[in-house]
Amino acid sequence: xxxFDINSSRIQKRLIANNHLAFAFLTHMTxxxxxxxxxxxRQVASSDDLTHEEWHSILSLKTQICIAxxxxxGAQGFNFAWNQAEVAGQTVxxxxxxxxxxxxxxxGIIEYEPRKFLYRTGSRSITPMEELENTALLIKNNxxx
Length: 145
Hints:
Elements: H1 9-12, E1 15-18, E2 22-26, E3 36-40, H2 52-73, E4 77-81, E5 97-102, H3 129-140
Antiparallel strand pairs: 1-2, 2-3, 3-5, 4-5
């Protein structure tokens, strides 16, 4: 199974922000533009295995990303979620918090089924890398502004 490596070129192209214990990047299978994943640098599968410092770092990035998504993409609200364990739909054994920016009238999550909420095989296509890079740059440019 894959994990998220901040040093991989595929993550670096979509990287939005990082701190000493966590990093944030755009998912390649977006529910809506700006759909971001925040995860610890250390590979742990479960939120139960995160240290208090890692949680703080993840939540700090979450706050920064949300502010930037409001400025850059006009987000009016957010869905936050993670799947924990294969039975709950977790497909990558590296904890990651999903941030899905929401706006009035968007076509994001309409029906909710917990195991399909974040991973819907066949219902989400891979977003082109150029689009992801452009969106990541737009969000980065609105961090801490």
